[in-house]
Amino acid sequence: MEKFYVTTPIYYVNDRPHIGHAYTTVAADVFARYWRVKLGDDQVFFLTGTDEHGAKVAQAAETAGEDPQVFVDKIAQEYMRAWEKLNISHNYFIRTTDPRHTAVVQEVLQKLYDQGLIEKRQYKGMYCVGCEKYLTSTEIKDGKCELHPNAELVAQEEENYFLKLSELAPQVLQALENNDYRVLPKERREEILSRIKAGVEDISISRTGVSWGVKVPWDETHTVYVWVDALLNYFSATQIVKNKQEFWAPDLQLLAKDILWFHGLVWEAILIALKMKLPKDLFVHGFFSIDGQKMSKSLGNILEPMELAERYGVDGLRYLLLTAFAFGNDGDISVEKFDVKYNADLANGLGNLVSRVAKLAEDVDLSGVAKADDSLDARIEEALKNYRPDEALGVIWGEIGALDKRLDDDEPWKLVGEERTKKVLSYIPRLRWVAGAIRPFMPETAAKIEKVFAGDTVARPEALFQRL
Ligand SMILES: [Zn+2]
After folding, report:
1. Which residues sit opposite 282 in a β-bridge?
2. Would you name the residues annotated as active-site residues?
3. What CATH number is attached to the domain comprising 86?
4. How many folded domains does the chain comprise?
5. Ligand 1 center–CA 145 separation, angstroms
6. CA 435 / ligand 1 centre spacing (Å)
7. Is residue 277 domain-shared with residue 417, that is, in the same domain?
8. Is position 428 within any domain?
9. Is 21 a domain residue?
10. I want to staple 420 with a disulfide (CB 3.0 to 4.6 A). Which of 101, 174, 311, 415 is the partner?
């Protein structure tokens, strides 16, 4: 691997940043930070951003009594502030209302139209306001949208432009079966494979009567659906940002399972039609439940990342999110569980270990300490190549636990003279290693620990994690 281009989905601005957005973005940040160290800063491109068009956004702006552009500007700012707070190291924040992006969208649509892959048809179907699209027969369960069972479907008839997805699907299927692009974990690959094999219908890509969107270039009475516009951000960013063209195609695209259809099939169909390189890996992570319940505005159980960052510190929150459950699975989180884990792994675990060793080494000369042994690095790299930050952190915390236990067994505080010094010095390379290993996950904590053990004498450590 020579370069690493990683993307999060762009987040829809009808919603403020919540814990699900933070989860995906922190994970992407870990991969970006890890590969920057391995490949060099210039070899990594980390993209995130906001999805700002569509009827739902126009509606939300109207409810707020605001011009849509003013409205989306404000929410985009909220996302940017949230990512700054969580120490997210994205190289670019793309916004779909950027005219340079919309120009790329129009260019792509025109190309597909010129190839005869887009066609105007009269359309009659069941429309889901939640999805902002007409549903295919497989997406309707008991007369309701699978994803929005509480919303009534609306029977509508209108003139739409259609992308001939059925014509492109066999090539997508072949590409997926050949591993020209991978969908991970394998259950998600199975899911998308079986959905493609079950038959793919052409898909409506435009509507009339929605003004807040990208205009269809050859017919300005139509605007394109927000998802067409949104998918193309991954490409347009490489055109907009200076010197990023050579980063095409993405090496890793993170997404949650509700947008698998668009990312695992429609996206590749468009790229194949344009004769463009496909992304290498799509990794689909799961959903959170909060205390056993689905997170929802109506239940009032939305966890605010900013509030959690106040409680656990930014690095504490990053750690708790990444270790809550295996990346790729669904999982349940709660403040109670986070509190227990925070105290065990961070306050009593890493934080306590650092202060114990720092205290022992207070008046020891560290100048002759050997370089850290790095036999665990390969396991961390392996875990991250498999997109399992939780596993990588498990390796590091295994070492932290082992060091803690060794301290208890060795009881170096009972030793004196050279024997004590020798024993104490044996811990320093391990602590230096821990500091380096946690850097992509917990950059501020890593820097604090490095400062303690970097010099010829130990620097007094700041408290890393206050017990709750
Ligand atoms: Zn829906």
Report:
1. 183, 253
2. 18, 21, 128, 131, 145, 148, 294, 297
3. 3.40.50.620
4. 2
5. 5
6. 45
7. no
8. yes
9. yes
10. 415
DSSP three-state, residue 159:
strand
Residues with CB under 5 A from ligand 1 (ion): 128, 130-131, 145, 147-148
Please report whether residue 154 resides in a domain. yes
**Could you tell me the distance, in angstroms and rounded to a whole number, from the CA of residue 128 to the centre of ligand 1?**
5
Judgement on whether residues 211 and 84 belong to the same structural domain of the protein = yes
Nearest to 62 by CA among 211, 220, 205: 211
Residue 430 lies in a domain: yes
- The Å distance, Cα 148 to ligand 1 centre, comes to 4
First-to-final CA distance of the chain: 42
CB 374, CB 432: distance < 8 Å? no
Ligand 1 centroid, distance to 42 Cα (angstroms): 40
Q: What is the span of the domain harbouring residue 97?
A: 4-285
Do 214 and 72 share a domain, yes or no? yes
pLDDT tens digit at each of 468 positions of the chain? 899 999 999 999 988 899 999 999 999 999 999 999 999 999 999 999 999 999 889 999 999 999 999 999 999 999 999 999 999 999 999 999 999 999 999 999 999 999 999 999 998 889 888 887 888 888 898 889 988 988 889 898 889 999 999 999 999 999 999 999 999 999 999 999 999 999 999 999 999 988 899 999 999 999 999 899 999 999 999 999 999 999 999 999 999 999 999 999 999 999 999 999 999 999 999 988 988 888 777 777 778 899 999 999 999 999 999 999 999 999 999 999 999 999 999 999 999 999 999 999 998 999 888 777 788 999 999 999 999 999 999 999 999 999 999 999 999 999 999 999 999 999 999 999 999 999 999 999 999 999 999 899 999 888 899 999
> Is residue 135 left, alpha or beta, with left meaning phi > 0 and alpha meaning psi from -120 to 50?
beta
Instruction: Output phi, psi for 100, to 5 deg.
Output: -70, -30
Is residue 104 domain-shared with residue 163, that is, in the same domain?
yes
